[in-house]
Amino acid sequence: MKATARLQVRVQRKSDEAIDICSLELVSADGGNLPAFSAGSHIDVELPGNITRQYSLCNESDDLHRYVIGVLKDQNSRGGSRAIHEKVSEGDILTISPPKNHFALAPAADHSILFAGGIGITPILCMAERLAAIGESFELHYCTRSRDRTAFLKRIDGSGFAKKVVFHFDEGPDQQKLKLESTLASPTAGVQLYVCGPQGFMNAVLSRAREYAWPEDQLHCEFFGAESVKSESDGSFEVQLASSGRIVLVSKEQTVAHALEEAGISVLMSCEQGVCGTCLTRVLEGEPDHRDMFLTEEEHAKNDQFLPCCSRSKSPRLVLDL
């Protein structure tokens, strides 16, 4: 698989945004402009310890001189957020990918409802700023544990769209907590719903929207991470490389990507959780056992591609376009 282009950026500013949340302002290492991006975009960031993670861009999308990311120090970190908080400093040079967008705003919406849970505010804030800039109708519901754990609070309060934002704090009084029924009970054509945050939060919003018969094409989400899906019935299987005919055994304890790497076959990966789509690989024969959150249900049903970082096989062998 071909590696994508990489950019060198310098950490111009590192700031505390809330308890356990910091932001990094990244500028081009050569002093020039960075590639343009649209609201909802993210970048891959290569971090100390040979770790690559995805972070949403949360500055205004017409900024060409910088990228801003917000990072939660996750207590269950696999190394990425800890590296950002503890090992990355102002002045450091980092390697990143150009922006990618799997969470874009739908064109020509009559109204947009934005839901952000915790650090899920990062792409949602960029969306809100874009919608405000072009004069579109929207509302933003921002849910956090408490006010002191609410990132970009001053930035939102000082914005021109502050009146469109409703804050919901877990530790606040009941009357200000999020009431999904009142927001979602009447789905309307032309209204788009966007949600980002922890998996439980996103599942709650999307499940309630579906209960009220929201059409799937009006629901948009982005996952930061996925829970590892394992089954007692998981067994070994084979993957075959179409280009050479070589066969690699994938044991019960391995992912396809790791089995290939151990066999000396390079697979480009980033999240290793089935979220970002970096390792997407064509399947020529066999039936994948899809365990990702990147592909749609329709794409899963076609069984002509899968994510080897997390998905497995229902058939004894998969033939891959490698």
Give me some keywords for this one.
alpha/beta, Rossmann fold, Elongation Factor Tu (Ef-tu), domain 3, six-stranded antiparallel β-sheet, five-stranded parallel β-sheet, 7 helices, about 325 residues, 3 domains, Ubiquitin-like (UB roll)
List the SSEs and their pairings.
Elements: E1 7-18, E2 21-28, E3 42-47, E4 51-56, E5 67-72, H1 80-87, E6 93-96, E7 111-117, H2 121-133, E8 138-144, H3 153-157, E9 165-169, H4 180-184, E10 191-197, H5 199-211, E11 219-223, E12 237-241, E13 247-250, H6 256-262, E14 281-285, E15 288-289, H7 297-302, E16 305-306, E17 312-313, E18 317-320
Parallel strand pairs: 7-8, 7-10, 8-9, 10-11, 12-18
Antiparallel strand pairs: 1-2, 1-6, 2-5, 3-4, 3-6, 12-13, 14-16, 14-18, 15-17
Strand order of the largest sheet: 4-3-6-1-2-5
Spell the H/E element sequence.
EEEEEHEEHEHEHEHEEEHEEHEEE
Low-confidence stretches: none
Number of strands: 18
First-to-last CA distance:
7 Å
Number of domains: 3
CATH class of the largest domain: Alpha Beta
CATH superfamily of the largest domain: Nucleotide-binding domain of ferredoxin-NADP reductase (FNR) module
CATH architecture term of the largest domain: 3-Layer(aba) Sandwich
Strand content: 25-35%
Q: Can you give a write-up of this model?
A:
The chain is of the alpha/beta class and 322 residues long. The chain folds into three domains: 7-96, Elongation Factor Tu (Ef-tu), domain 3, CATH 2.40.30.10; 111-223, Rossmann fold (3-Layer(aba) Sandwich), CATH 3.40.50; 237-320, Beta-grasp domain (Ubiquitin-like (UB roll)). Helix content is 18%, strand content 30%. The chain has seven helices and 18 strands. The strands form four sheets. A six-stranded antiparallel sheet has the order 4-3-6-1-2-5, covered by helices on one side. A five-stranded parallel sheet has the order 9-8-7-10-11, sandwiched between helices. The protein has a five-stranded mixed sheet with strand order 13-12-18-14-16. A hairpin with a 5-residue loop joins strand 12 (237-241) and strand 13 (247-250). The chain is globular, with a radius of gyration of 21 Å. The relative contact order is 0.12. The model has no long low-confidence stretch (mean pLDDT 90).
